[in-house]
Amino acid sequence: MQVFYATQFVLPLPAGHRFPMAKYQLLRDRLADELPAVQLRQALPATDGELALAHSPEYIQAISDGTVDPVILREIGFPWSPAMAERARRSVGATIAACRAAFNEGVAGNIAGGTHHASADRGGGFCVFNDAAVASRLMQAEQLRRGRRLRVAVIDLDVHQGNGTARIFRGDDSVFTLSLHGQKNFPFRKEASDLDVDLPDGCGDDEYLHALEGALGELERRFDPGLVIYLAGADPHEGDRLGRLKLTWDGLEARDRRVFEWAWERGLPLAFAMAGGYGKRMEDTVQAQVNTFGVAAQYWQRWQNRRR
Ligand SMILES: [Zn+2]
Asked: Separation of 21 CA from ligand 1 center, angstroms?
């Protein structure tokens, strides 16, 4: 299973910054040690032209040359540096590469990405560019070259609403945005996705899985995708500092399995990205993500078995 990374570009963050940047390298190390099916591949940076499929040229330029509005930079929550701009491009590149690999092999992943708070002309909430949005539009363009109209379902199970993705695809009926999120969590002003499911504080496994089942059913009634991009946020876990939900390890894994199973049953290629995870213990976030890759590898293996 091909997994794309940009972990060599570490954002220089001030001491005590609350973003757990080290989790990406930890995850990469654990995947290399524990999951032999995973082939780690370095991501290429997304180009200006690719980014412009979902972002304004002015915003892309401002991020590239460090002239981004200080208000927007504060909302992103990272100081600007050349490494910050490069890493943001590579993270989008990793989701693009994962989507292409998913068309060939059924399932592929990005060790980072899932930066769903970024909209066309501004970032926010640790998100600079919106990888799922850029990759959706690029895959549509690439498939159109082959005479196929591609419809993409973005299944966003990060605990925070995918407000940037919702904004970008508002009025675009070729991409279905589904977001299951904590009702009282950031962002406090929600955007309208194609399907939003608000969950109460303290929501546990059963309630969550029931809500997911209903959402997948509604997605299926309303939309017929040819590709799934799955944002497998680790932050619904009960050990998360920011999540406010109470999913156990088993609940999170059942969530992942349900999404992979749903795509598999329908023969849909699936690319996944990590999105958020702010465990009180960073190892817990990494464990949740390793678990996601473990489930993903099982479904990747099914695709390979079916082709033989
Ligand atoms: Zn999140």
From this structure: 14
